[in-house]
Specification:
Number of strands: 5
Mean pLDDT: 93
Strand content: 15-25%
Low-confidence stretches: none
Structural class: alpha+beta
Largest sheet: 3 strands, antiparallel
Helix content: 25-40%
Length: 141
């Protein structure tokens, strides 16, 4: 059976994609470009992305984002507001640990308490007409 495979770094981990029944690497390259494109839009592990633009503007102004990003944020907020355990606004708290980076650490209790004030999804304002997202409280980056 014909099988091709590629591995690459994205989303904070090593990814591998394998295709069966073809030896045309264009399919692999297209899939990798697709994943990398969405990582470029959504990552919080680099200073620049659509999501980081929202975080950088926290407490200052709404940010107009691409439709795909807006729809994903909107869905994440809706699920978060059901209060069954998922929280789209958990990022500021999770980032304290710096998991996956060389400087990973356990944060202090004070840091955790301070960041917990930021993680309410009810503090995320969505504007369907402008496709903008506004985080009411500062401190997201």
């Amino acid at each position: 059976m014909i099988k091709i495979s590629k591995a690459w770094r994205a989303m904070g981990t090593t990814n591998q994609i394998t295709l069966f029944g073809t030896d045309d690497e264009r399919y692999l390259d297209d899939a990798i470009r697709f994943v990398n494109h969405y990582e470029d839009l959504l990552t919080v592990n680099r200073p620049v992305s659509a999501v980081m633009a929202i975080n950088h503007a926290a407490g200052q102004s709404p940010v107009v984002v691409p439709p795909a990003v807006y729809q994903l944020v909107k869905r994440a907020v809706a699920v978060s507001n059901q209060h069954f355990g998922f929280n789209a606004a958990i990022g500021p708290l999770v980032k304290l640990w710096h998991i996956g980076f060389a400087d990973a650490r356990v944060p202090s209790d004070i840091e955790i308490v301070q960041r917990r004030e930021l993680i309410g999804s009810d503090e995320i304002v969505l504007d369907d007409d402008r496709l903008s997202v506004y985080l009411r409280m500062r401190g997201w980056n």
